[in-house]
TrEMBL record:
Protein name: acylphosphatase
Known EC number: 3.6.1.7
The keyword Metal-binding belongs to this UniProt entry's keyword annotation: no
Enzyme active site: R21, N39
GO terms assigned for molecular function: acylphosphatase activity
Length: 108
């Protein structure tokens, strides 16, 4: 059985009002991960990824190394892991109601 981990992150950059959360959650779903993301009042986004540690590592690397994440100009300036965060169910945007999509996913 494959190991499942839960990782919490925060991100800054151009991440609000540019479909960053939906792009992130849709991409996570396409990769077989569970994800939740929420805007913070300081302009950052917090998110949680649940699933294979290897796939999570790959997604985080793509987030850090892709200049423009979607057609709306979402981009990451800084991304860091945090020890605690909002539970999956308490995020504003989650994979619970996302269908797999080719239209909103991180440019690779």
């Amino acid at each position: 059985m494959e190991k499942t981990v839960t990782k919490h992150y925060r991100v800054s950059g151009t991440v609000q009002n540019v479909f960053f959360r939906k792009t992130l959650v849709t991409t996570a779903s396409n990769l077989g991960l569970k994800a939740g993301a929420s805007n913070l009042l300081n302009g950052e986004v917090e998110f949680v990824l649940i699933g294979s540690p290897e796939i999570i590592k790959e997604l985080v690397k793509k987030l850090q190394n892709t200049k423009s994440l979607n057609n709306y100009g979402a981009s990451v300036e800084k991304l860091w892991e945090v020890q605690e965060g909002r539970e999956f169910e308490n995020h504003h945007q989650t994979t619970k109601f996302i269908r797999k999509s080719k239209h909103l996913q991180i440019f690779i």
